[in-house]
Amino acid sequence: MDENLAPGALAGQMAPTGALQHAYVQNEPAVSLPPPASMVGVIGWLRANLLSSPGNIALTIIAALIAFWLIPGFIKFLITDAVWSGADREACITKNGITPGACWAFVRDRYSFFIYGFYPFDQRWRVDLFFVLGALGVTWMLWLGAPRRDIGLFYFIIALPLVSYGLLSGNNPFGFVSFAPQWLKATACLLVFLFAYLMNQSDDSKGALGFMTLFGFIISGVLLAENAWSLLKLSPVETSKWGGLMVTLVVAGVGIVASLPLGILLALGRRSKLPVVKFFSVMFIEFVRGVPLITVLFMANTMLPLFMPDGWHVDKLLRALVGIYMAEVVRAGLQALPKGQYEGAMAVGLGYWQMMRLIILPQALKVTIPNIVNTYIGLFKDTSLLLIVGIFDFLKAIETARIDPQWAAPTTSPTGYAFAAIVYFIFCYGMASYARATERRLSVADKR
Amino acid sequence: MKKTILALGAAVAVFAAGTASAQTLKTVKDRGVLNCGVGTGLAGFAIADSQGNWDGLDADVCRAIAAAIFDDPKKVKFVSLSAKDRFTALQAGEVDLLSRNTTWTLSRDTSLGLNFGPINYYDGQGFMVRKKLNVKSAKELAGATVCTQQGTTTELNLADYFRANNIKYEPVVFATNDETVKAYETGRCDAFTTDASGLYSERLRLANPDDHMVLPDIISKEPLGPGVRHGDDQWFDIVKWTHYVMITAEELGVTKANLGEMMKSTNPEIKRLLGTEGKYGEAMGLTNDWGARMIKHVGNYGESFERNVGMGSRLKIARGVNALWSKGGLQYAPPIR
After folding, report:
1. CB distance from B57 to chain A under 8 Å?
2. How far apart are CA B325 and CA A34, in angstroms?
């Protein structure tokens, strides 16, 4: 190594001459001073964010006045003046000319109705279990660090809907195979083992035998699940007894989970080159987009029962419906991508589905995340429209309880609505926050 | 548009009703449960409690019929119906019976393919005023401002009544019931008008219920009663006689509590009512003790009334025209014989 080029040597040479002769040459970095007190801490933040210009100062003052004017009232009504316990309206009525604040005693008395509706009292553990399983599924899917998210996807898309349906309705979710007699089920299971054995012998795991084995495993799994489920002997609960937050979550959950895949398919269909696929996708999207949700609900509720006397429920309707709005959202994303992306994908020899799966959809979905979440939040709130067709969703449960003479008091209705607002806000804010985090995570590529 | 859809629905329904269900009783027995259409929540008539059970005068009609058929008032599936879909639900066979504070009118009776059963509650439009106004009758409301809800029959009845009595008044209309009540409470008007049963439940929600009173005048007829489909007279008979049995029981003093000793009564009227004599139940396809079953599980009409809307409830509605005919009211049952 050349000694002269080593930094230590260079500094050593310079030091005796430069440092002594030129006292003003600084040979070590100056210690940085702390920023002025007016730029950091609380004062700095206030200056930068609240008081940076005369217009800003005026806005700050107005906002402070509004907050000062509104917030004490809210706190007074919701917390300090509120009634927290009591058995009936006596707790919340006006006494000596003083009307108390929010009647939380009413919410405490009725919260089980708000959550479960008419669900039979001794069967409510099934709803609780459904909530727990649902929360597990959501956490598994949304938490990126969760283990085995591939199993999580299977659980969320296939197992959870089947089990939830079985739990809540009490019907056997695998009941479609109950026609099969036991000997047939046993034979099917035996055949699966035979296939598995043959596959082991021939090492043909990718071929026809492997496929047959997988298929056989699914069939025997369903058969076994059917048998196992029938051992639980859950009593059936008709959907007319479902109610409250449970119905809101079921409808919103089904809508959210089912609408994205359907929406993507419709959006692809709409941009398809095959005329028939394109025609039907466009027809479907435009027809349902052109009809307000409320009209569809009315039509479904007034007309359909006349044609379908039994076993038809409105909550089935919403599932199909929401896909449409989603389709438009995804289509907007597809169109936002430059044509070069398609051409580039084709140029490297990708087929249609490969191109969509690897190039187009990941980018299109990223572009549309804000819209998709908007739609989800809208969908969650739209579930309250179900009350006009006599389904007891969360809001309708509150609506019913607030007119009960047992709790007739001046502040009962405001309290009920405040509770509804808080609960809806928690769910919608949760969705929006997660979406913002996802957006930030996915936009890392755009920031370079 | 709405009318067209309704008319179309009704037309289809009439067509469907003719073919669908002539054997309602058999269908109900085979199903093992009575499908009963109730409202979406009206204090005193059909409202869900904190456990999710339906309570009220209308819910009791459903329970009484279930008790008569199955000897078990729990064998009812309550189907909550909005005002818009109540008739189609009945016509389409989704419910066996509509017990949902529905006003019996000629057009509903004739053009919708329905039969209305006996009137289980005579409602009508009334007025609520402040006590300190010192008004004893609606006729003294000359020059008063009256709060009412927009686009309802209430608004029309109000105009008719004051015009017929040649009284000047000033209507103040609002879009929703809650707004109307709020306006009355804040002193925007001197009087508030809606159906009398509604006045009592709204009064409870005012800050000082005792400062307000419901005037005795009733200015409109709102006969409320159960409805069934055309084409099944046996079922219609059962619904009618359910109500008549409950009235007769009140008339004869048979209650839930004294049913045991009444079963041993030698009074021929009581014996026919409770089925210890004659075969009146079997004539309708029920058992002969159908009357006793209703009293055992639901009670007589007076008991049901007081428990749900009367003095035993928070609404504290006076019997008024809903008292027995023998006590100056309109509730009257044909004889059981």
Report:
1. no
2. 95
Closest Cα in chain A, distance from residue B246 (Å):
25
User: B232 has which bridge partners?
Assistant: none
Q: Give residue A356's identity as a one-letter amino acid code.
A: M
DSSP B123: E
Same CATH topology for B2-122+223-327 and B125-220: the answer is yes
Cβ-based burial of B84 (10 A; exposed 0-12, middle 13-18, buried ≥19)? middle
Under an 8 A CB cutoff, do A309 and B81 touch? Answer: no
Whether A401 contacts A116, CB under 8 Å: no
Least-confidence region, from A115-119, B20-24, B65-69: B20-24
Residue ranges of domains in chain A = 36-84, 122-261+293-392
**Is residue A246 a contact partner of residue A130, using CB atoms and an 8 Å limit?**
yes
**Chain B residues closer than 8 Å to A410 by CB:** 205-207
Nearest CB neighbour to B178, from listed A93, A408, A413: A413
Q: Residue ranges per domain, chain B?
A: 2-122+223-327, 125-220
Domain B125-220, CATH number (from 1.20.1000.10, 3.40.50.720, 3.40.190.10, 3.20.20.370): 3.40.190.10
- List the alpha helices (DSSP H) in A233-360: 245-270, 275-289, 293-302, 304-307, 315-336, 339-347, 352-355
In angstroms, what separates the C-alpha of B43 from chain A's closest C-alpha?
A: 6
**What are the tens digits of pLDDT across the range B42-67?**
889 999 888 888 999 999 999 999 99
d(CA B236, CA A267): 54
Highest mean pLDDT among A33-47, A431-445, B18-32, B63-77: B63-77
Q: Which residues of A250-266 are buried (b: 16+ CB within 10 A; e: fewer)?
A: bbbbbbbbbbbebbbeb
Residue A52: in which H helix or E strand, if any?
Answer: none
Q: How far apart are CA A250 and CA A255, in angstroms?
A: 8
In chain A, which residues have their Cβ closer than 8 Å to the Cβ of B43? Answer: 403-405, 408
Contact at CB, A303 and B207, closer than 8 angstroms: no
pTM assigned to the model = 0.80
Nearest residue to B289 (alpha-carbon basis) of B316, B266, B306, B270: B270
Task: Please provide residue B71's backbone torsions phi and psi, each rounded to the nearest 5 degrees.
Answer: 60, 30
| Interfacial B residues in 66-125 facing A (CB < 8 Å) | 77-82, 84-85, 88-89, 91-94
Q: Does residue A302 sit at the B interface (CB-CB below 8 Å)?
A: yes
Q: Which residue has the tokens 């002997």?
A: A233
CATH architecture of B2-122+223-327: 3-Layer(aba) Sandwich (3.40)
Q: In what order do the strands lie in the sheet with B34-38?
A: B76-80, B34-38, B97-98, B227-229, B114-116
Q: What is the ipTM of this complex?
A: 0.80
User: In the A/B pair of chains, how many CB contacts fall below 8 A?
Assistant: 113
Q: Which candidate, B158, B123, B132, places its Cα nearest to that of B318?
A: B123
B127 in reach of chain A (CB within 8 A): no
Contact state of A408 with B80 under an 8 Å Cβ cutoff: no
DSSP state, residue A255: H
Could you tell me which residue, A334 or A318, shows the higher pLDDT? A334
Q: How far is A35 from chain B (nearest CA, A)?
A: 58
